[in-house]
């Protein structure tokens, strides 16, 4: 047996056993499993390229040699059947728990399976589960020797197994940064010292066509992490020693440099572009803060310029996610919905901002958030219908009364109704007036807590509550990702 297979083969466990049936639900077999593997290679592997399945690998051989990876990708490909996906997701989560905690082991297969599970099934997890799995994924990297201390060793051994490890480490960094950057959890970030060498190796070696994309997906998250760290509350006191306009321009130059260096063949990649727009939003949202000049804040035309840049980035992000042609609707991994929620909430803040010189009527009109919410509701309702499994009484009895997607669609309808009920903003406040003045009618309606009222816990709310997991799994509704 070769070294690669030795690394992937875990001790005997339920993950490596033949597909089992849980009631009326079973893991894919035979032709169905081969079709799902083909779909993974055709769609998901090019969107989330951190786990590569060779073209000559069959479903049967993958299940035997890499059982956790096989189950994780099969789970994602069951997304059109909510009941089946939820039941199998619970089973796989239990197997991960045993492999990581009660009967601990380490293997590259386990790490790759975890990466796929969190990236594509995170909406089926509670926030607590997702956080713990990310921490365990990070620890597993260390246990496997995939960390910054192994740079020289990995650079001298660039075989297929080494590159698989590099992709897995890159995927771990990508998930952790995606999860924590927009929620400003800077204490949870990974050390980036190793990443420059990792990206260089992947770009130079590039055994797979998507390895260059892996490198740039890591680089854009490094950029976002740097912005988040620079503007975090922990560095606020040091930042205010410099005018904020200088800090913004410095970070802005880093973004422009990144854009210039993106290879031509990756400039139309929607995942990369969405992360870049999110990085811009992380930077330009400082314009939402009303901080005095004495404390280094933005005021006057400087603030308006940053706010306009924020508006431009948000509009570009929304245009990407709500592509009217429908050509880009398959372009995002489920974990990217975290970015979507962050940008959507920032839009809500922007359309309720009262600031001198800020044309609120134009901003509301051009962002058109109620229309986008209605578009997403229609997509949700289509997915809800698709995920139903007929009227078999045996299957219906174990379901809750409502698909979680329906609850989320209802929430979006409420948001849309509130947005449409907002009165037209009053005349734009002249730039020379005090920034604290605002239209009283708008202020009364929004009550200064508009965003938090609509989404009281936007981050943990993306995952099912502990007591509402039921028998359905809900892919997140704010994906820009349709089923095939």
From TrEMBL:
Subcellular location: Nucleus
Region (Disordered): 1-27, 465-484
GO-annotated cellular components: nucleus
Keyword check for Hydrolase: no
Main subcellular localisation: nucleus
GO molecular function, one term: DNA-binding transcription factor activity, RNA polymerase II-specific
InterPro entries registered for this protein in UniProt: prtT (IPR051089)
The species this protein was found in: Pestalotiopsis fici (strain W106-1 / CGMCC3.15140)
Feature: compositional bias, Low complexity: 9-19
The name this protein goes by in its record: Transcription factor domain-containing protein
Sorted UniProt keywords: DNA-binding, Nucleus, Transcription, Transcription regulation
């Amino acid at each position: 047996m070769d070294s690669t297979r030795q690394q992937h083969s875990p001790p005997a466990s339920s993950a490596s056993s033949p597909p089992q049936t849980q009631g009326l639900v079973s893991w894919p077999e035979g032709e169905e499993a081969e079709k799902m593997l083909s779909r993974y290679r055709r769609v998901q592997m090019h969107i989330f390229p951190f786990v590569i399945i060779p073209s000559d690998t069959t479903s049967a051989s993958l299940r035997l040699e890499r059982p956790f990876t096989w189950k994780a990708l099969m789970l994602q490909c069951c997304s059109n059947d909510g009941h089946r996906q939820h039941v199998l997701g619970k089973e796989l989560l239990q197997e991960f728990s045993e492999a990581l905690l009660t009967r601990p082991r380490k293997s590259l297969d386990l790490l790759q399976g975890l990466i796929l599970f969190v990236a594509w099934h995170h909406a089926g997890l509670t926030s607590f589960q997702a956080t713990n799995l990310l921490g365990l994924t990070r620890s597993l990297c260390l246990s496997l020797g995939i960390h910054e201390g192994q740079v020289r060793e990995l650079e001298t051994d660039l075989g297929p197994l080494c590159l698989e490890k590099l992709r897995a480490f890159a995927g771990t960094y990508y998930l952790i940064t995606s999860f924590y950057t927009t929620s400003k959890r800077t204490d949870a970030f990974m050390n980036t010292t190793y990443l420059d060498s990792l990206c260089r190796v992947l770009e130079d070696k590039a055994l797979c066509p998507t390895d260059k994309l892996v490198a740039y997906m890591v680089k854009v998250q490094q950029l976002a992490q740097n912005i988040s760290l620079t503007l975090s509350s922990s560095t606020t006191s040091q930042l205010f020693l410099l005018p904020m306009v200088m800090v913004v321009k410095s970070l802005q130059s880093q973004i422009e440099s990144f854009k210039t260096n993106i290879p031509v063949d990756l400039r139309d990649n929607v995942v990369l572009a969405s992360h870049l727009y999110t990085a811009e939003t992380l930077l330009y949202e400082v314009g939402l803060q009303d901080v005095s000049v004495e404390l280094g804040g933005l005021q006057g035309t400087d603030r308006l310029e940053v706010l306009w840049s924020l508006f431009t980035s948000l509009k570009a992000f929304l245009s990407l996610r709500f592509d009217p042609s429908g050509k880009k609707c398959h372009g995002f991994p489920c974990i990217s919905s975290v970015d979507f929620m962050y940008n959507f909430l920032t839009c809500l803040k922007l359309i309720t901002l009262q600031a001198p010189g800020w044309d609120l009527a134009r901003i509301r009109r051009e962002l058109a958030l109620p229309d986008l919410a209605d578009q997403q509701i229609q997509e949700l309702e289509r997915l809800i219908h698709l995920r139903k499994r007929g009227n078999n009484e045996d299957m219906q009895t174990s379901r809750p009364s409502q698909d979680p997607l329906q609850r989320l669609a209802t929430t979006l309808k409420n948001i849309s109704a509130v947005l449409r009920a907002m009165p037209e903003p009053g005349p734009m406040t002249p730039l020379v007036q005090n920034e604290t003045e605002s239209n009283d009618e708008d202020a009364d309606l929004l009550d200064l807590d508009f965003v938090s009222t609509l989404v009281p816990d936007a981050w943990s709310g993306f995952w099912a509550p502990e007591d509402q997991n039921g028998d359905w799994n809900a892919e997140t509704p704010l994906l820009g990702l349709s089923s095939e």
